[in-house]
């Protein structure tokens, strides 16, 4: 019997109603930074990439997309804060819609995971006078990157990331994360406003909704996690205080574009970029309690809650490694799923088998696939027929070539593109 017709027990290929969206299957393209939007403007290569991964009734999430000019921490990441970016995104969204998928725009601010200046390793020019050489070293090699005016990145804290992490610079080198500047309370409303404007821009570009990136050690997670947030004001300390920044953003964006068009991503148990918490389960539950309350208050559910599960650790530096035992991870995810009153999407290390299992056992409504979707543009088709998968090539994850490692992974058969 084809899996789409399974009786009772849902599979990855059972239809799903996500609020007002009727999905024909549960395999979602996970948000993934791919560094192909030169100078922040999405270009035609992105339309090709996203349409390759579109299916009738499918669902895509864009790469992290910058909410403001202080939000970047990777080279050539698209933005959604000015008209030129909105116009460029329109073409991509239209192309995806023409293939029958919906597409959510992931709103991103990296916070302290950014950089302000790129000190190249300068060459020595013995033929220059010492004075000119010093000028060269100070001015010409001191290129401003990511932050306007070379300002310090913003965060909940003024603690820099530990030496365990390195930042990818525009020239392909890796730098040390600089000391950030802790946001003052009076500055927070402006940052919230950036998310709101970006969400409105995304809807203007035709996106079906937006996903607020509250995961993986970036700005919102820097407020959520007690391993980073060392504030003594109303945004630090208690769980209620640490959740406040996220909830102000969610509230403001929901008011602007409607709760059913917004989604939230969190990763309470992921320590990417030093984002540790002393009690990940309680943190996850605290966010969920507040999202449930907001949904009740607004009389509308969010589109979905997207949770990266600890197995995601495998995505970072290595291909293996776990935070807790398999049972601990399953308990955490299951408890969060059972507590959230709405659509629950999981991500992180899912194979076909694990995805099938999660959906069948009620641990996930939807499953987002990352790396396997990079190397298999027709992943939905391949998973459906249980076909072999292309292997992904890590070294082209973040390069700028519009084709190589981006849109040149082979389809199984030509028909699967239809
Ligand atoms: C190249 C790459 C870029 C990523 N960029 C983002 C991103 O922009 N936003 C985000 O929330 N997660 C990002 N992730 C995490 C993925 O969404 C996903 O959760 C992760 O890859 C684990 O899923 P997988 O095991 O199916 O790859 C990225 C992952 C990869 C491999």
Automatic annotation (TrEMBL):
<dbReference type="InterPro" id="IPR045247">
    <property type="entry name" value="Oye-like"/>
</dbReference>
<feature type="domain" description="NADH:flavin oxidoreductase/NADH oxidase N-terminal">
    <location>
        <begin position="12"/>
        <end position="389"/>
    </location>
</feature>
<dbReference type="GO" id="GO:0009695">
    <property type="term" value="P:jasmonic acid biosynthetic process"/>
</dbReference>
<protein>
    <recommendedName>
        <fullName>NADH:flavin oxidoreductase/NADH oxidase N-terminal domain-containing protein</fullName>
    </recommendedName>
</protein>
<dbReference type="GO" id="GO:0016629">
    <property type="term" value="F:12-oxophytodienoate reductase activity"/>
</dbReference>
<keyword id="KW-0521">NADP</keyword>
<keyword id="KW-0288">FMN</keyword>
<dbReference type="InterPro" id="IPR013785">
    <property type="entry name" value="Aldolase_TIM"/>
</dbReference>
<comment type="similarity">
    <text>Belongs to the NADH:flavin oxidoreductase/NADH oxidase family.</text>
</comment>
<dbReference type="InterPro" id="IPR001155">
    <property type="entry name" value="OxRdtase_FMN_N"/>
</dbReference>
<keyword id="KW-0285">Flavoprotein</keyword>
<dbReference type="GO" id="GO:0005777">
    <property type="term" value="C:peroxisome"/>
</dbReference>
<dbReference type="GO" id="GO:0031408">
    <property type="term" value="P:oxylipin biosynthetic process"/>
</dbReference>
<dbReference type="Pfam" id="PF00724">
    <property type="entry name" value="Oxidored_FMN"/>
</dbReference>
<dbReference type="GO" id="GO:0010181">
    <property type="term" value="F:FMN binding"/>
</dbReference>
